[in-house]
Design a protein that fits this description.
Layout: H1 16-23, H2 29-34, H3 48-54, H4 66-94, H5 105-140
């Protein structure tokens, strides 16, 4: 599996050849290169390059690899998105908040607890109503 920094867009750390090898898609290398699908951004089922790749007649003799190619591209995109999100979280923790935007975390936690408490009250009230309905039905029989 690739490390988080292997997927940073705009760096030399993403290895197209390594991804092909790990994905078992080396047989598609020439077609992927032909359609400039060598970067993380281009190796997506939503890219304009993918539309040209998937309709290429050279792909027909290797059509059995299409599902594997799609799955591998989706996994790559999910990994890339997860790594971007992880990096954003790390940056938020490292970046001090400005005083104007900084509401104390204890205030936020208290608000969260209030919200959670309200949800539990609703659940308990619903359960009590359901229990009352069952009791009424039993009394009628």
């Amino acid at each position: 599996m690739m490390a988080a920094n292997d997927l940073e867009e705009g760096t030399d750390t993403f290895s197209f050849d390594e991804w092909l090898s790990m994905s078992g898609l080396s047989a598609l290398k020439d077609i992927l290169i032909k359609h400039n699908m060598i970067s993380i951004k281009a190796l997506s089922t939503e890219s304009t390059e993918f539309a040209a790749f998937i309709s290429d007649p050279l792909l027909l003799p290797r059509a059995m690899l299409i599902p594997q190619a799609i799955q591998s591209m989706q996994q790559l995109q999910n990994q890339y998105k997860d790594d971007i999100n992880d990096n954003d979280i790390i940056k938020e923790k490292e970046t001090p908040q400005s005083p104007s935007n900084n509401s104390s975390s204890s205030d936020q936690e208290a608000d969260t607890e209030k919200t959670k408490g309200g949800d539990n009250d609703d659940v308990i009230a619903k359960q009590q109503n359901d229990d009352n309905d069952e009791n009424e039905n039993e009394n009628e029989n």
